[in-house]
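Weekly structure sync - notes
Attendees: PM, LS, DV (DV joined late)
Agenda: review two folding runs queued last week.

Item 1: First target. Sequence and structure tokens pasted below for the record.
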Amino acid sequence: MTAYAKAIIAAVLFALGLAVGWVTQGWRADARIASQRVDHAKVLADIATATEKTQRAVRQYEKAANAAITAADQSATERIAKNVEETDRLRACVAAGTCGVRIVTRYVREPRSAGAADSSASTVGDAALELDREAASRVLDLRESIKLDAEKLDYLQRYAGTCWRARVEAVK
């Protein structure tokens, strides 16, 4: 064999070796990629399961919170309506003159002399002031406003508590 033929055979064998190495590395790379795809699919499935579980918890939280808020809203609305009804009844009674509004006061009389150390010299007394219709109406307006504000505060406190409890339950 001539040196030229030996060089060609060596080149062909070298090329064959490169081709076999190339194919073998391709198979290994395909196996790695397939393994990574399987691992990736498992991770995606785990993420999907966790997302679905979280979505169910959020929906459950929303349902519980909405139910509690609806109940609190209905209760507060009923109490406000009763307070308005009572105030309207009292206004009608005052307007008709069948009842009145009195303010009970307490007062302490000061001792007559500035140097008196005797505590029995001052007395405590009670008195009730009868108000005219206009003043009584203003007192009833004030009463209604105070009761309405108290109901609003109570409602908001229960709303906040309900939201907090529902969030705690959803986290569990």
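Item 2: Second target, run right after the first with the same settings.
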Amino acid sequence: MSIEEQIGMKIRNLRNQNGLTQEELADRTELTKGFISQLERGLTAPSVSTLLDIVECLGTNLSDFFHDEDDLQIVFPKEDYFEKEDEDGNSITWLIATAQSRSLEPILVRLQPGQSMPVDKPHEGEEFGYVLDGKIQVHYGDEKYTVKKGDSFIFPANRKHRISSACKKVSSILWISSPPSF
């Protein structure tokens, strides 16, 4: 099967999953029904920008569109984790080895008493955290929030931000960044 036929088959399957006719997809992408028909039969190849418009209208992105589901790893055993510890005893454990190819990145942060993680500069996306043990302060722009065991936090990452210890024992935080930034 040619690459054009593979692309066409994927577009047809996604269109059908979304309950769209060829004409509805053509209207949403400002293309013709004839072009969509030729594309789905593998008789023509779209430009990158046209393919991007089509897959976005179908509720996905180019990365997922070309990702082979057969290679998708679902379970990540502890042996696959990667841990980095600094000179103060703070540690970051990457829980998903391939997170850079995903839309989010979960890490486990262990923060020693009196310590702080480095300031993270503003960037796109969001940050979410859940305090598993201890108590921390979330520094978000010029504001500070105290977050204790069992509490969570979420914020857009468009301001400088960091976390610091707010207790006399090790604090553990499940931290999820979207998109991956660590």
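Discussion on item 2: The chain is about 25% helix and 30% strand.
Action: LS to circulate a short write-up before next sync.
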